[in-house]
Amino acid sequence: MLAGELVRQLDYKAAWAGRQFVQIDRWYPSSKRCHSCGFVLESLPLNVRTWDCPDCGTQGIDRDVNAARNILQAGTALLAGADG
Ligand SMILES: [Zn+2]
C-alpha cells in the first residue's frame, strides 16, 4: 500500500468513527525525544530498544512506546492550536 493510500484510508476510517485524524511533521524527533521532559538526544541507534533519559531519569520505556507518546502529544498540541 502506498503511503498516500494509507493516509487516505486512515483519514476516511477516522471520520467514519467520528474521530479526528492529524498528521504531525514527518521530521518531528519522536524517537529521540523524551515523552516525559522533552529532552532530545542527538542520536538513538535502532539497536537501542529502550528509552533511558539522561536528563529526567525516565528509564526502561520501550523506544516505540516513548515515540508513540510523543506523537500523541504532538497531535494533541496541533488539535489544540499550539504550534507543533
Ligand atoms: Zn526525560
A few lines on this structure:
Helices cover 37% and strands 5% of the residues. By secondary structure, the protein is mainly α.
Annotation keywords:
84 residues; mainly alpha; two-stranded antiparallel ribbon; 2 helices; 5% strand; binds zinc ion; Cas12f1-like TNB domain-containing protein; DNA-binding; Cas12f1-like_TNB; DNA binding
Structure, described:
The chain is mainly alpha-helical and 84 residues long. The protein has one domain. It contains two helices and two strands, in the order H-E-E-H. A two-stranded antiparallel ribbon has the order 1-2. The longest helix is centred in the last third of the chain and has 17 residues. It is elongated. The protein starts with a helix and ends in a 5-residue tail after the last helix. The mean pLDDT is 93. The structure holds zinc ion (ZN). Zinc ion binds next to loops. The site of zinc ion has 8 residues, from loops.
Low-confidence stretches: none
Structural class: mainly alpha
Strand content: under 5%
Query: Strand order across the biggest sheet?
Result: 1-2
Bound molecules: zinc ion
Q: Treating each run of at least 4 consecutive H or I residues as one helix, how many helices?
A: 2
User: What summary fits the major beta sheet?
Assistant: 2 strands, antiparallel
Alpha-carbon Rg, integer: 15 Å
Q: Total domains, how many? A: 1
